[in-house]
Design goal:
Layout: H1 10-16, E1 20-21, E2 25-35, E3 47-62, E4 66-82, E5 88-103, E6 106-118, E7 122-132, E8 135-144, E9 149-160, H2 161-164, E10 177-189, E11 192-208, H3 213-221, E12 234-242, E13 245-255, E14 258-260
Antiparallel strand pairs: 1-3, 2-3, 3-4, 4-5, 5-6, 6-7, 7-8, 8-9, 9-10, 10-11, 11-12, 12-13, 13-14
């Protein structure tokens, strides 16, 4: 795999998220430097540095959610120093700049992030940002590589409801106009999608959601009918996530003549 070309903890981080690149994986402008005490083992350096420019095409990895078709690059900087207890302590930083990535099947353009590895066990993907469905998303992911667990917090701002609800390359669904804001916090175990748990909230403003499958289902379940001329223009929904199951347990919907809580 792609991680076989790198040393720990970088290779450990790549393996933890199952990083692979279907297209070219290029390493350039590399620097490798090591400092050893006299007669020390090759595996026992006082200082180890690895720096290089890394570019990739069609990369994919799993850090809780699935990330695919990632085109971008980074400047890797890994420094490991021997501490007084004779344990090699590593630090890694890698600011990511990309042109595009699919997150759970949704296209994100101009993705940015900063990858940090603290010690041998903690992988942080901080300052994640990108454009999605005409809006903006920011996020942060933390992975415990020793336990194989992950946590994600994501915020969404001013995204198009019509674009978010379309499936892959299908035509947008009529009656799903609006702007979406939201927040979700998830956690789970790597390679175990059924372990995913969390909670989130979505708010839709400036909406025209008469034909939205979600809002129609809620209205039908509540045995209410919207006036023919009305559409749901505001919605706030709270939900929980349990594996591949999402449960909507709080909602508020309103139109010019109706408010539904």
């Amino acid at each position: 795999g792609s991680s076989d070309y790198f040393t720990t903890p970088l290779s450990t981080g790549f393996k933890a998220v199952d990083f692979n690149s279907e297209g070219p994986l290029r390493v350039s402008n590399g620097l490798i430097r090591g400092v050893w005490k006299q007669d020390a083992s090759i595996n026992d350096p006082e200082l180890y540095e690895f720096k290089a420019d890394l570019s990739f095409e069609g990369a994919r990895f799993t850090a809780g959610p699935e990330f695919d078709h990632f085109d971008g690059g980074t400047r890797l900087e890994l420094v490991a120093r021997m501490d007084p207890e004779r344990k090699l302590r590593s630090e890694l930083s890698a600011p990511i700049i990309g042109t595009g990535i699919d997150v759970e099947g949704r296209k994100v353009t101009e993705p940015r992030a900063n990858i940090l590895i603290e010690g041998d066990d903690r992988l942080l993907i901080k300052d994640i940002s990108g454009d999605i469905a005409g809006g903006r998303t920011v996020a942060e992911i933390e992975i415990d590589m020793a336990l194989g667990t992950w946590e994600l917090e994501l915020d969404l701002e001013d995204a198009s409801l019509q674009e978010l609800t379309r499936v892959r390359d299908d035509e947008p669904v009529d009656g799903t106009i609006g702007r979406v804001l939201g927040n979700v916090r998830l956690f789970g175990i790597l390679d175990e999608p059924e372990s995913k748990r969390g909670r989130g909230r979505l708010i839709v403003v400036d909406g025209q959601m008469t034909n939205s499958p979600l809002t129609l289902s809620i209205v039908q379940l509540s045995q209410l009918m919207l006036p023919v001329s009305d559409s749901l223009e505001f919605g706030e929904v709270g939900f929980t996530v349990d594996g591949d199951r999402m449960v909507f347990d709080e909602f508020q919907l309103s139109s010019p003549s109706l408010q539904l809580d």
